[in-house]
Design brief:
single chain; 125 residues; mainly beta; 3-stranded antiparallel β-sheet; 11 strands; 0% helix
Length: 125
């Protein structure tokens, strides 16, 4: 067992997204990653997919999940499930930041853009 700090998210090169990896490859994991993110109002993740399942827990704020051509609103106290290889995008809507925790079934996490290019993440996964 190892104990690690839960560092707050910090700014990334992706506009409006602050990120902190709470657990992943650097902490000795090979099959899970735990991310904490804050998405500024009106900002969104780029459209992407992962080669693993993803669970997103919404702590506060409001968001929309775009997946399979449909928009699914969500907010605090709700959980999103994203199956492996499902193209998706998460956007913060409303006037406050969207605060989320993401659990991904891989470490490191591969993130692919719609053109199938690998997105070089600006944080450790």
């Amino acid at each position: 067992m190892h104990v690690h700090p839960q560092t707050p998210p910090s700014a990334t090169p992706i506009p409006g997204i602050a990120h902190s990896t709470w657990a992943g490859r650097a902490q000795g994991l090979t099959q899970l990653s735990l991310w904490r993110q804050s998405i500024a109002p009106g900002c969104a993740t780029p459209p992407h997919r992962h080669d693993c399942d993803e669970i997103v827990l919404c702590l506060s704020g409001s968001g929309e999940l775009l997946i399979a051509g449909a928009v699914h609103p969500f907010g605090a106290g709700q959980t999103i499930t994203v199956p492996r290889d499902a193209p998706h995008r998460i956007e913060a809507v409303g006037s406050e930041p969207l605060e989320i925790i993401a659990v991904l079934a891989a470490s490191p996490v591969a993130v692919f853009l719609p053109d199938e290019q690998l997105l070089d993440l600006p944080w450790p996964s």
